[in-house]
Amino acid sequence: MHELHVESTDKAEIYKEILPQIECLIQDETDLIANLANIAAVLKAAFGWLWVGFYLVDAEKRELVLGPFQGPLACTRIPFGRGVCGQAWAREETIVVEDVNLHPDHIACSSLSQSEIVVPVRNRSGQLIAVLDADAETTACYDGTDEYYLNKLAEMIAANQA
Ligand code: SME
């Protein structure tokens, strides 16, 4: 059994504390859903964001389908290119939205959400298999620090995923 240890209050320091713990957590487990479920739990506990979780690529339907998450209920499917998640998938890049109310194609799963970051998650061959989505109740919650460390986290998942 693992227990999460977070002592810092500074955002970068929290990432530096939790990333090695996540690495330990996933290194001996190859099941993607189990690992994503624990990662969502760790991020929620460490940062207290409104919603954090994963949407998985459904290649056949060309949609994202809801995966492991922590937070209020969310929309189940997002078409390719739609919403911030679908755009991050289509562009294969991280998207940071400081104010979702000003974003032209934001899909509001919760009216409490004010800012958002979406990070592509790949497998070891570089194929995009999911996106990590985090939503906060404050505007401009996410910045380059989150982008940097959440991409490090995505690389960890990729290294572990055939
Ligand atoms: N806001 C996202 C949809 C997912 S929920 O926020 C959990 C989007 O615009 O893609």
UniProtKB/TrEMBL annotation:
Pfam families: GAF_2. InterPro entries: GAF, GAF-like_dom_sf, Phosphatase_reg/MetRdx. Residues 31-161 form the GAF domain. Coiled coil: none annotated. Belongs to the free Met sulfoxide reductase family. This is Diguanylate cyclase.
